[in-house]
Automatic annotation (TrEMBL):
It comes from Methanimicrococcus stummii. InterPro entries: FilR1_middle_dom, Tscrpt_reg_HTH_AF0396-typ3, WH-like_DNA-bd_sf, WH_DNA-bd_sf. Pfam families: FilR1_middle. This is Methanogenesis regulatory protein FilR1 middle domain-containing protein. Residues 128-253 form the Methanogenesis regulatory protein FilR1 middle domain.
Amino acid sequence: MKGKGLLSLITYSEKRKDLLFLIDEKPRTLFEIKEFFNVKTPEIYPRIKELLEADLIQKTNNEYYLTPIGKVILKYYTPLVEILNVFEETSDFWTDHDTNAIPHHLLERFNELENSILFQDPSKNVFEQNKIIVEKLDSAQKISGIVSVFMPSSLEMFQEMTANKTPARIIMTQDVFDKFRLDYKDVLLQFLSLKDNELYLMDSVNLFIITTEGFLYFSLFYKNGLYDAQKYLVATDSRSLNWGNDCFKYFVEHAKRIEKLE
């Protein structure tokens, strides 16, 4: 089979694609392949033969392996599949919101959020939104976050961090900082009084993110500039957490540190 047909070979058949991923895990015998797919030889062997002819797999000692070419193709095909999975599972989240705030290099790592879960809360009561954040902070060992909109959970979050003396690095947008300084100055002072805490300021950023050592919360703004408190991604897997931490690191490098209130 010619190289120009490789794309259709892989993408036009779920069975061939799944077969490649299966063999990528470890070499498989024909029996193991049939057992995995719960099929008989006439049903699966044509797919195996196609992959053999395309030089994507090879057979040695009754086991099927990925060829060097197969490994390279799968290496670059895997992120695409993961990206498509993320978009298919959470398409409403990405299409409804402004993604311009997300740094380009992190959009390119979109696939790392494959195991995130989309929560959709139809409630219009903002006071009941995002309790999940405060609950997760109670057991956190360290916290990083970008607070770009003032909500009851924002205030609760700071109170929780201060009460638990949890080391925290927080970026606030200017309007959120002004709200805290005007109405909840004591909360900011208590937060800054803890030596392991850091507070940063940015003019604006249209995303809201909280990360701990075992939890990621991520939400965006609508394209019209309004914050959406009803749809958000939550994750606990290492790849998503790493993505969230890198997102915070990017913005903290562009933020101004606030060490005391004027």
